[in-house]
């Protein structure tokens, strides 16, 4: 079935409104639990909303829409939800101490959560570098530059966490 441009805009506007509401609720929750990466998370949300808004305002063709929507949704679903939102759950598990009995379990959870989620970076000499979540966020949101010890060149993001 052929879908008119205006119908697409209406559907995307509904999705856009849902995303804004979801992000707002998530940010309120992160603030309540004192999540340490709240500011970085807000920037991620702001970037996704900005991209989605631009997409809605600038739909020209169905193919153009498909391509741009795929990029935004894969960034939101794959990168954001599967990696960054999952970190909220890991942080909660590592910091949720209720009873003495729970503390023993908590020590195990903390050890598990310390297994590093690695973000793969590379450099011109093709060395791969496994960076922690903190290092990854520092590069993305705090303008930190890390250099390869071999070639002394700036690292660039290569691959999602393993």
Strand content: 5-15%
Helix percent band = 55-70%
Number of domains: 2
DSSP summary, beta strand count: 3
Derived structural class: mainly alpha
Order of helices and strands: HHHHEEHE
Shape: flat
What is the helix tally?
5
Which regions have little confidence, pLDDT < 50, spanning 5+ residues? Answer: 98-115
**Widest sheet: strand ordering:** 2-1-3
Question: Biggest sheet: strands, sense, closure?
Answer: 3 strands, antiparallel
Write down the overall mean pLDDT. 79
As a whole number of angstroms, the C-alpha radius of gyration is: 19 Å
Terminal CA distance reads: 40 Å
Explain how this protein is built:
- The protein is mainly α and 162 residues long.
- 65% of the residues lie in helices and 7% in strands.
- The chain has helices at 5-32, 38-57, 62-95, 100-113, 133-141, and strands spanning 119-122, 129-131, 156-159.
- Strands 2-1-3 form a three-stranded antiparallel sheet.
- The N and C termini lie far apart (40 Å).
- Mean pLDDT is 79; it is low at 98-115.
- This is Hemerythrin family non-heme iron protein.
- Belongs to the hemerythrin family.
- Residues 5-85 form the Hemerythrin-like domain.
